[in-house]
Amino acid sequence: AVERTFSIVKPDAVAANNIGEIYSRFENNGLRIVAAKMMQLTKEKAEGFYAEHSERGFFNDLISFMTSGPVMVQVLEGEGAVMKNRDLMGATNPKDAAPGTIRADFATSIDENAAHGSDSAESAAREIAYFFSDAEICDRIR
Ligand code: CMP
Question: Which SMART domains is this protein grouped with (predicted)?
């Protein structure tokens, strides 16, 4: 089914000028960008987004990295978009990411791993609503 997922091009990939390369991966693989913006995350915004990880040992490093520079946030739409985007990104740790995936090609470490993507339809709905109002999401089906 056609569905939506949420994606972040993280500060490392923005700083390395890889926004376009990563957007091309989406567009060349059946995903449409239906909302997008560049923003600098505040500590509060990042902590809210990653609240489920707040007890993890990597949490403080994650928040300081995600607030270290601008990110691109986007909503991707297409057939099986949640899994498609996760396949395109590859494993969380670029050391484990399959060749040709976004993380294999653009990430340097598990902390600075170039991209985030929702892990389920439920997460996608929550994450999209955390960053975008309904009016900011464009209907591109017709
Ligand atoms: P992301 O999909 O944005 O979700 C949480 C992030 O925490 C993850 O990508 C990684 O960049 C980062 N992270 C750092 N260490 C770990 C770890 N051990 N397990 C999972 N995520 C980690």
Answer: NDK
In this predicted structure, the answer to whether residue 141 has a pLDDT above a threshold of 90 is no
Helix axes 81-89, 19-27, angle to 10 degrees: 130
Q: Residue 31: what pLDDT? A: 98
**Which ligand 1 atom is nearest residue 50's CA?**
5
Q: Is 53 a catalytic residue?
A: no
As a whole number, mean pLDDT of residues 117-136 equals 98
Q: How far apart are CA 80 and CA 101, in angstroms?
A: 17
Ligand 1 pocket by Cβ (under 6 Å): 53, 58, 62, 92, 110-111, 113, 116
Q: Per the structure block, which two tokens stand in for 59? A: 């949490």
